Amino acid sequence: ATPLSITVAAGKAAGNGILIRSAEALETAHKVNTVVLDKTGTITNGTPTLTDVLPADGFDADELLALIAAAERDSEHPLATAIVAAAEDRGLDTLRSSTFESITGQGVRALVDGRTVLVGNARLLTAAGIDASILTADLEALAADGKTPMLAAIDGRPAGVVGVADTIKDGSIAAIADLAARGIDVVMMTGDNRATAAAIARQVGIARVVAEVMPEHKAREVRRLQGEGRVVGMVGDGINDAPALAQADVGSAIGTGTDVAIEASDITLISGNLGGLVTAIDLSRATMRNIR
Ligand code: ADP
Ligand code: MG
Q1: Which-ligand-closest: CA of 37?
Q2: Interface ipTM above 0.90
Q3: What is d(CA 71, CA 53) in angstroms, rounded to the nearest whole number?
Q4: How many domains does the chain have?
Q5: Fewest CB within 10 A of the end CB: N or C in the chain?
Q6: Catalytic option among 38, 166, 192, 241
């Protein structure tokens, strides 16, 4: 492409709230045939709210929420924020933890009121040697609804399941349909539960889901798709997404996302709407068509 045509296209993109960092990104975007989308904060708004508190036998819902909120207080994860906000709303924000440990991609462990509180996914409880099978039915019911379930254990005993629900961003469904209409395969990638991810994917029209991905493995998944000969565009918002955004042929960050994700990307979608990616691909296709 001529430097002038690239500059013109980048200017048009900027007018649509799409910041393109390099000429190379504009030259590559027209070749993208697979787009990988992070779920939380990219397809969804990323501000989940607590919807369900399901204590196991022998535990009280308010007591459970108070304990897990104390455990989650020092976590910056959106799931933690949802739990703490719900406890505050219900006047259950009364306890504080004395020790706190965050286990990336799994959850948290804290000491609250002399009790050991674990909150996170099944992997977290299994790794602690806790049999959480009595919680499985509740976990599966929440996930089938597209909610993210979190398991709680107190002093080594399974204590209950809580669920949070996120909302789908305006524009996600339309953008995913637009990508498919351009012959692009769309893949959802998330650290979230497989069943939750599948339910959200169904709602937005995505057929291919890679779920329960550990943060450090997101880039590997992108590499695997490239190994199939695909030219991969990736969109993400989180610190966890940065290596995958850098690995992708064209990485796009959500403008409201973390600085680390923005720095790892070629394109920033200022408004956070996935429609910006479709516009960028269209601009690249038009630009590259004109010069051949
Ligand atoms: P995502 O790709 O959706 O941003 P993460 O890798 O951050 O996911 O987290 C993966 C999973 O680990 C979450 O769906 C949740 O089950 C569990 N998890 C992570 N952090 C927390 C936390 N602070 N509290 C409870 N569960 C957590
Ligand atoms: Mg995210």
Answers
A1: 2
A2: yes
A3: 15
A4: 2
A5: C
A6: 38
